[in-house]
Amino acid sequence: MPTLVRKSLGEYRRALIGWTVGLCAFLGMYISIYASMMKDPETFSRQAIAKYPGAFRDLMGGMTDIATGRGYLQAVAYQLLGPLLFTMCAAILGNRAIAGPEEAKTLELTLTLPIDRRRLLLERWAALTLGLLGVALVTLAVAAGASSAADMDVPFGSILAAHTGLFLLVLFFGTLTLCVGAAFGRKQIALAVVGVWGVAGYIVETMGRSIDAISWLRWISPVHYYLDGRPLYQGWPYGDYLVLLGATAVLLMTALLAFERRDVGV
Amino acid sequence: MTAVVETEGLTKFYGTRRGLEDLTLEIRPGEVFGYLGPNGAGKTTTIRLLLDVIRPTSGRATVFGADTRDPRVRARIGYLPGELALEGRERARDYLQFLADVRGGVSRGRIDELAERLDADLSVRMGELSKGNKQKVGLIQAFMHEPELLILDEPTSGLDPLVQQEFLAMVREARTAGHTILMSSHVLAEVEHVADRVGIVRAGRLVAVEDIAALRERAVRHVELHFDAPVPKESFDGLPGVRDVVVQGASLRCTIDGRPDALIKAAARYTVVHMVSAEPDLEEIFLTYYSEEEGRHAHAGA
């Protein structure tokens, strides 16, 4: 493994372990509640669900089939909270690539090593990707294990398809953070961009899909390409996932170009 | 011999603020170049331009004959940043090893040898290093790969006097090995004992480049002479290079610029019982440069 990738992973290690533990605890706990809820079907009866405001149900992805294994898994793990937590993890790690060290002024010495800037940025990005992939693999195992333990009756293939989408989504947001950080060198700007694009994108994709005035905005929401194909139900939405991958590649290219031109640490 | 560092009209503006303007400078192989100026004068800007951390607004700079954009050049440079930041839980030794690996390795035992000389504890986590120890780690990483060019930005800040002596010894050794050193400082006293030449930068402009030997020749010296009997002031008026003469009975105080020859010859006519001559204060000439520049600029502006 290239020295800088190894070094960056070493720097991410504690954060990666922390987020993996947190995400696994979240997934394990929420998924295991399913079994006890099913013992009391009244909680999730259609009448009970109908009491929630429509907008809230939209926000949670409809909730029409929350009493089924798939519906429950989608609503608690893959709809909102899972992507939200994992995206926060990706944004925090993405900021550690360039903007964090630049603000801490430790980037200057790294830049004076005999490495060109493109390689520096690519290796930092590779470490980010590997780190997120590690978190994704462990959480996938936990999600699959917990759902089969809770008798959810969701095939592994569906969970894998949904989890891959989750990974691609957070990789997109992680790369976005890295890209804004590489262009401006400021953590706050990067977090603001990710926060606004992520939250607005989510709202447009869920509540906004039935509002004509803003529903066209779905096309620029990364969340659209994660949720729209309903991978937990319908398997792999290849086209959507390719869009996420392509967008990530565009962001990475942008980051390379922006970082190459910039004065660092001023 | 080609210059190690060469700049031509090197200019850097941060927006409209001038960082450095029209710097043309040549640093020759094997010399120790002291780069002097008050804080904010453009020293760090120059150094960051040479290391390609920031990009010039105009002009050009080469190191070892290659454009500063070429990353391979940086393998031959040892750099100590002016504001060295070391963070995190990593131990200092592991960080140094990482830097060494990226630069293509350092000879065995070199890190330990330097750590011992500077009395640095490398088992400490980076975020817990004291200011002085941080500076030591910075010096070790700059010197460890025995680079042909050392660029040291305010190297002695935060070092206690003993370590400063050791550092100066390391600089001399590097020069003996034929390496070139560019070191910045805001006080001349820090570099005058090792530097061959000094450049003085002020408000983003290089105002003078001088040989230290020549500078010393022109140094201002305060001299005090005591005679066995009162002396007439007239005997010492109008001597070349002698000014501010004050005679009080049998003692005389004055300031000499450059050589003390005329004063000695004039004093030799009387019986000298005691003589005090302070070390030439290069700082003072350094400041005269500033005020002269100031005057010239004011004049040109009028």
Give a short summary of the structure:
The complex is a heterodimer of chains A (266) and B (302). Chain A is mainly alpha-helical.
General description of the model:
- The model of chain A has no long low-confidence stretch (mean pLDDT 92).
- In chain A, helix 8 (117-149) runs antiparallel to helix 14.
- Chain A has one domain (3-31, 76-261).
- By secondary structure, chain A is an all-alpha fold.
- Chain A is built from 14 helices and no strands.
- Chain B has 302 residues and is an alpha/beta fold.
- Chain B folds into 2 domains: 5-212, P-loop containing nucleotide triphosphate hydrolases (Rossmann fold), CATH 3.40.50.300; 220-277, 2-Layer Sandwich (Alpha-Beta Plaits), CATH 3.30.70.
- Helices cover 30% and strands 30% of the residues of chain B.
- Chain B has helices spanning 43-50, 92-102, 110-118, 131-143, 161-176, 212-217, 261-267, 282-301, and strands at 5-14, 17-27, 32-36, 58-63, 66-67, 77-80, 149-153, 180-185, 197-202, 205-211, 220-227, 242-248, 251-257, 272-277.
- In chain B, the strands form 3 sheets. In chain B, strands 6-7-8-3-9-10 form a 6-stranded mixed sheet, sandwiched between helices. In chain B, strands 2-1-4-5 form a 4-stranded antiparallel sheet, with helices on one face. A 4-stranded antiparallel sheet of chain B has the order 12-13-11-14.
- The chains are: A mainly alpha (266), B alpha/beta (302).
- The interface between A and B is medium-sized, with 22 and 30 residues.
- Chain B: Belongs to the ABC transporter superfamily.
- Chain B: It is found in: Cell membrane.
- Chain B: This is ATP-binding cassette domain-containing protein.
- Chain B: GO terms for molecular function: ATP binding; ATP hydrolysis activity.
- Chain B: Keywords: Antibiotic resistance, ATP-binding, Nucleotide-binding, Transport.
